[in-house]
Amino acid sequence: MISSQEKLPVIVMRSNDLSFLGIIRSLGREKIPFRSIVFTWKNANTWFSEKSKYFKKNYRIPNPQENNETALVEMVKIGQLLLKEFNQPLLIIPSSDTNLMFLINNENTLNKFFVLNGCKKFKTYRADIADKFYCSSLVAKKYPELCPKTFKCESNIEIDLLIKKTLYPLIVKPSVKDYAQSFYAKHNGMKALTVTNESELKKILSDGLEAGSKLIVQEKITFDRPEDEIPFYAYVDKNSKIIMAATGIKRLIQPHPYGTANVLELSWHQELLELAQKIVEAISWRGLIMIEFIKEKNTNQWKMIEINTRPWLFCDFYSRYNFNFIKLLYLDWTNNLADYEKVQLPSDGLMKKPPVHFGLLAIYNNMSTKEKKHIFNDLNSIMKYIESFGGTFSLTYYELDDVQPGVENLKALLKKINSHTSIDSLINTLNDKLTKL
Fold it and tell me: How many CB atoms lie within 10 A of CB 41?
């Protein structure tokens, strides 16, 4: 537990509801003080996080996508107030890439008031690592065997060059995110696209450039099993030493194959620890980080596909099992992080029955009509689906010591299903199952 003498608050920016909830729960459980900056937009989904016992709405700014200049003016005003109150810049934690890029794009203005995860001295915003091409280049300089061939595409001239020197199949994805996540929106939620021929590549790149995107073209690493596409979550101390780590297995990705993992199993892949350690040293990292690995099926070699530098979607899930990466970030920033002789890893006991995390409403929203009728027909079919994955289970939003966000999320699910199952019946069943685990 954090000492009550610690007075410096963390600033948390809300744009992704689930990630934001995970951050404030991770802070709230440890009684770490924080203040939130929120914005919303027309047709935004329900903010279930607002039902959390930890929720605060301290400051509000316009959506940067709709009005970047006014959002920046308001951020500066907030920063000035905080600087006057605490006499130093405060750590800010973005809940999505849109937040992260707003901060990075305005670093010269905002770094007087806010500091970001990543820099060895908590000074710069590490725009180099947020850019997937330059991040890959940095790692490839030292460890080329860990990186698939990756090329940037920021102009029409580069399209012609890429067509001449690349082999198919390829992956195309944004190198730098924008405030609207426009690549995902244009491609039905896909975070990347597989390209199999020259005409496909030319069209996707041309359309992306026309929309203002910076793209990368990457060698496609092929694999067969979910166990061979692994997110590696870590906290890295001031000496670029990994002191806490866990991995995940994406049991359900929607839309497949480059969407969101709506069913994620907590796992541990020991062979990735050494590789991850090399990568964080190569980029001179400090703070929390997620490294995406894929094992190439023909060579059995692991490759680093990309890096994410803000809290991931299911950080709350890991926190429930004592992997509170947000807590370590706070302790590190306030110079209270103890020296760790051994890295904290998932125990053998935990891995005997690995926890599996479900986003039921997200799963439903991304399923076909046939799948919905089969899996979400009634309470028994829902529970049968959950139990089919084995292990213990938990749900996004729903947590026994902060139950209301989950209740509202499940109410929204039942409303969409148009089910005769009552919310009380569903909650009682879940509570019984969760209490016994």
Answer: 11
